[in-house]
Amino acid sequence: MKKILFLIPAFLLAFQISKAQTEKGTQTLGVNLNFSYQKSDNLSINPSDHSTQTLLDKHTLFGVAPTYSYFIANKLDAGATLGYDYQKFDNSDQSYPQKRRQHDYSASVFLRKYFMYNDKFGIRTGPYLTYARYDSKDTYPISASINDNISKSDSYVTGVNLGLVYYPSKCLGVAVTLADVSYNHNKTNNGANGHGTSDNVNFNFISNNLGLSVFYVFGTK
Q: Structure pTM?
């Protein structure tokens, strides 16, 4: 198994003219870019005739998510995030190859309270609400095209997260999420393969699913 995972936080240039990064009127602007690539190369042996075949799976993901927030009061900001991910999966199984192409769209709103130890370091926590739409298409060779399928899912997520925030300079902020608890309601339509709903409660604490962000602050008096 070979796996390469890159998380590339990128941000847009802005300016800062205030004494404190979390005072009323401050704004933040940034964008997170995500790229991941996974490759699996396995040798399969049929015990009945000892025939072999190589199974090669590839999964690629690219995502972009611009984020904006505004401090509506000292140490309290509200904001929104828009996200788009494109995923590509290829399964080279010689008897049943499969290709999947998926487009993910999301929009989130959030409210965060900051508890600063000083002007540079603190924690932030607050609720968020996210809507996501997943559109995927599975295709197979002509001989198995009856299995081609289009799937659509709508996901509604509400939760609270907790993170650390650090300001290495007046115009630059860095944040890392430590914990997240959420409720997810998901509706899936798999076309000819059926449909269904699911409800999940999740809790993550310092896991690989949590993220790092870098941003600039600007716009205070």
A: 0.72
